[in-house]
Design brief:
The chain has one domain. Helix content is 83%, strand content 0%. The protein contains six helices and no strands. Helix 2 runs antiparallel to helix 3. It is elongated.
Length: 160
């Protein structure tokens, strides 16, 4: 049974790393699932504190990924309409254009929101670019979290 759990854990760890880059897979939650599966084996255990800390990091990382494009829009000069456009674009993109809608939706929503607010095309595209930068930053944060979990998984599996 341990070999099955370890094998499935390895798949989840790799899926978590891939999911940190691809918007349709939940990267850090998959990686955390891999850690849990390794924990449920007889020979490889993590402390409860370790698992709780990584559960919190996973949840925060996952949630940040949805809010960081909004922050990027604001940081690059987006107005209230651009921020709301980014939010609406994110939601619409998730439901209507998966998997790429999570990238395109906030960008398009921010641009449309700024144009509706009466901003110039260059200001609107700058706001949309901020949304895209936010998406890239969120991806990087998820990739770091999934990579760290992969490192702890490998460390526990091979060196303890």
């Amino acid at each position: 049974m341990d070999y099955f759990l370890i094998g499935l854990g390895v798949l989840l760890i790799f899926g978590g790393i891939i999911g940190s880059i691809l918007p349709f897979l939940p990267g850090p939650p998959l990686s955390y699932g891999g850690l849990l599966l390794l924990h449920f084996t007889e020979d490889h255990q993590f402390t409860s504190r370790f698992l709780i800390i990584w559960a919190v990091i996973t949840a925060v990382t996952y949630l940040i990924d949805y809010f960081i494009p909004i922050w990027g829009t604001k940081r690059f000069g987006g107005s209230r309409q651009g921020i709301w456009g980014s939010i609406i674009g994110l939601i619409a993109g998730i439901f209507f254009f998966p998997p790429f809608g999570i990238i395109i939706g906030p960008f398009a929503g921010a641009v449309i929101g700024e144009l509706v607010a009466g901003k110039t095309h260059s200001a609107a595209f700058r706001s949309g670019f901020g949304s895209f930068v936010g998406f890239l930053l969120g991806t990087l944060i998820q990739l770091i979290a999934a990579g760290m979990m992969a490192w702890y998984f490998a460390k526990e599996l091979f060196f303890s």
